[in-house]
Specification:
The longest helix has about 60 residues, at about 80-140. The termini are far apart. This protein has 4 helices and no strands. The chain has helices spanning about 25-40, 45-65, 80-140, 145-170. It is rod-shaped, with a radius of gyration of 41 Å. It is about 75% helix and about 0% strand. The chain has one domain (about 25-170). It is mainly α.
């Protein structure tokens, strides 16, 4: 009997939890990563990050000359800022990959639904084509207006002849 965190060998790889671990509320986590990745891909994020870096560097450069509290040295090449940006980049890459994986999953589901819809449409079209052919065959066998009129005229003529023969015989 398989434990909860052990991967099942009878399940496809995409369904099994990776390394036997799947965080609870993974959908909420996935939506959060997508929102962060979507936010990082905007011009406003780039502008805000640029302003943050400019303010950081300006403050620390001015603070060094004015004797204010300085938390990152210009002489050391703004080491703290570099570490912060590296940390941000190290988290941004996996978040973007997670968002891309979720998008790939959605695309895969959408493609499957499109394929199923196309199969249904093809089946419906084939059914309707068979019905149209059956109707055409039925219409060919159906009596037309002209045929019915001709038959009625022939019957009237027969009745008239019978009436005449009855009158003559009496």
């Amino acid at each position: 009997m398989a434990r909860r965190n052990e991967p099942r060998l009878d399940a496809p790889k995409g369904i099994r939890p990776a390394f036997g671990f799947r965080p609870s509320g993974s959908d909420r986590f996935g939506r959060a990563t997508e929102a962060i990745a979507r936010g990082m891909g905007t011009p406003w994020f780039l502008i805000a990050l640029t302003l943050f870096c400019l303010i950081w560097m300006t403050y620390n450069a001015v603070a060094e000359n004015l004797g204010w509290v300085q938390f990152d040295s210009m002489a050391l090449g703004f080491t703290t800022l570099t570490l912060i940006l590296s940390l941000q980049a190290s988290y941004a890459a996996p978040l973007i990959l997670l968002a891309q994986n979720r998008q790939d999953d959605r695309d895969r589901v959408q493609i499957e639904q499109d394929r199923q819809r196309a199969e249904r449409n093809l089946a419906d079209t084939e059914y309707l084509a068979r019905e149209v052919v059956a109707l055409r065959l039925a219409v060919k066998e159906m009596a037309t207006k002209d045929f019915i009129r001709a038959e009625l005229r022939a019957l009237l003529e027969e009745l008239d002849k019978e009436k005449e023969t009855d009158e003559v015989s009496q």
